[in-house]
Amino acid sequence: MTEKKSVVEPVRWGVLGCARIANNWVAPAIVATPSAQLWAVASRAPDRAQEMARRFGAQKAYGAYEQLLADPDVEAVYIPLPNHLHKPWAIAALRAGKHVLCEKPIALNAAEAREMQAVAQETGNLLVEAFMYRYSPLMRQALQIVRAGELGELRAIHSAFTFVLPDDPRNVRLQADMGGGALYDVGCYAIHVQRLFAGREPVSTYARCLWSEQYGVDLNCAGLLDFGQGLVGSLHAGFDTPGNTFFRLLGTKGSLEGPDGFSPRERPGVLVLNRAGLTRRLTVPQANAYEQEVRDFSEAVRGAHPLLYGNESLDANMRVIDACYASAKSGQAVTVS
Ligand SMILES: NC(=O)c1ccc[n+]([C@@H]2O[C@H](COP(=O)([O-])OP(=O)(O)OC[C@H]3O[C@@H](n4cnc5c(N)ncnc54)[C@H](OP(=O)(O)O)[C@@H]3O)[C@@H](O)[C@H]2O)c1
User: Fold this and answer.
1) pLDDT along the chain (337 residues), means of 10
2) From ligand 1's centre to the CA of 104, what distance in Å?
3) In terms of CB atoms within 10 Å, which end of the chain has fewer, N or C?
4) Separation between Cα atoms, residue 58 and residue 247, nearest integer Å
């Protein structure tokens, strides 16, 4: 994943929807990645598809998602649609013979995620949830430190992903029937990073949400995850508190902090490692995590190597989200089932 030249014939990508995340990050990443080619763009509005295709040099622009899926030249599809459309379009793409990189959260609940994964298995196509942050050198170094046992046994993981969302009723994050809400939108990262560092699944959760009366979605969510054997995680997700995207790990031999842990940007990242009373700031040369993600996926499509994070169980993160929402609604701790 470090050399710049493609080791494989570029994979032809199609994008469903002219989403902000596609325009700002993922389409540029596909264009910049030697093992990928942006082949087609589809939008509900043909002129938007044409404009985006022109901007990124895609060969085809389609005025309907079905048309892109019917294009035999498209090999991989990126899905940056509102959350409630992840399942139907991921399944449609898989059944059309495409590999799928689908935005987070993969679905609205664990049952939907299992259904999607079953179709991926049946069709033999890749289906990956686009948690781009984990491809950054910063995250990979942090994981190395934890897995090498430098922190001893983990006792606590704190993670947060919050930002201030402007009050715009058109934003998909504020639409209850589209899978809006802070826990779905950014809490999914705070949960995912804890599962990644813990290397196991939480057994139960206790969560509290602040609900918007106007929109019926959670604007803020805090949760405790019990991973058993003395490890507890605390997480925070919010649309109403300015920029926090950190993780902090406390172990029996030391602690590690990623003050800007989920940042996909190209500037150097920082890890703060504390061991035996000594605090060291480690500067990690950052790289564009979206490009790393597209590259890993494309090379795996070509069979050059397995996916960096393997064939993960796509319902695992959703099971924790389901349990957090159930706990926030009942006021009780809920077993992650
Ligand atoms: N990985 C990351 O860093 C990251 C960052 C931000 C967001 N995301 C995820 O990416 C997805 C999209 O987020 P976004 O902020 O980019 O959203 P967005 O700008 O609102 O884009 C969503 C796109 O979906 C299409 N769409 C189809 N049906 C729609 C409907 N009924 N209402 C609204 N849009 C509809 C639209 O494209 P057309 O009209 O052109 O068809 C629209 O541009 C979400 O799942 C989000 O969680 C990921």
Assistant:
1) 68 98 98 98 98 98 98 98 98 98 98 98 98 95 97 98 96 97 98 98 98 97 98 98 93 96 82 95 92 97 96 94 98 97
2) 11
3) C
4) 37
State the pLDDT at residue 276: 87
Residues with CB under 6 A from ligand 1: 17-21, 43-45, 48, 80-83, 85, 103-104, 130, 132, 172, 185
pTM above 0.70, yes or no: yes
pLDDT of residue 2: 44
Beta bridge partners of 221: 209, 237
Domains and CATH numbers, the chain: 11-132 (3.40.50.720), 134-335 (3.30.360.10)
Q: From the CA of 277, how far away is ligand 1's center (Å)?
A: 46
Question: Which numbered atom of ligand 1 lies nearest the CA of 49?
Answer: 40
- Return the ligand 1 atom nearest residue 18 CA: 40
What H or E segment, with its residue span, contains residue 270?
A: strand 269-275
Count of CB atoms situated within 10 Å of the CB of 168: 8
List, edge to edge, every strand of the sheet that includes 36-42: 60-62, 36-42, 11-16, 76-79, 99-102, 127-129
How far, in Å, from the CA of 224 to the mean position of ligand 1?
A: 29
The residues carrying an active-site annotation are 104
Residue type at 266? E
